[in-house]
Amino acid sequence: MTGSAQKTNSFKWQPNAKLLVFSLLMMPLLLSLGFWQLERGDEKQQIVDHHAHNQQLPPVISPEQLASGEDHQYRLAWIRGTVDNQRVIILDNRVKNGRPGYEILQPVTVSGLSEKLLINRGWIEASLDRELLPEIPTIADNVQLRGYLYHALKGGYRLDDGIRKVQQWPSRVGWITLERAEELFGESFLPYQLRLDQDSPGALKTGWTTVAVQPEKHVGYAVQWFAMAFTLLIMTIIANSNVVSWLRKKHQ
Question: For the whole model, what pTM was predicted?
Fold first, then answer.
């Protein structure tokens, strides 16, 4: 009788094949998503640290500095040059505060340099009529522009806008890089664009963000994925054993 009671009160593994297969498939997925979010958080933290460090450096003020090949990412710059008001890139699908719009980019001739500098003037609201392009204020000649230097980071998803050659200026495009700017304008460009400060001549609406999602949010997302993996583990054990009744009888 005692042996029978001990046998009844012992922990038993009662596997359910379908539930086990489901858990074995889902567990690696949940864990990989958690570790992926941690990696993303680490990448974003490096970007934030890079931004904070280079923002503390003295501004780039000379053409020689601009063309030196140093790491100028996120560094402040005061650049004097002549803006090309005829050839304008209208960067499509730029949403700000839930409203559709564009970012406006133009080439600048910097005295003493053969390469052009691409400036991003910021955001302008789009018309509800897609056929109407925004009216873009011109910028005076030989003007000092203020902002920070930026080189597009790797990654991101780009839709093919079908544009291989500009037929008419201003040109509305879906994406832009320095390499594509050279293709569209047919000229050489410096490896950074200048994102204008709000108080710079020619600035529209700026308010640039360093990263779209802060590192802490990625860590929070990782915790959620790991919590789901832990919950799945507990549910798998419960569904495939008598652990609940075993623990209840053990503490009676």
Answer: 0.78
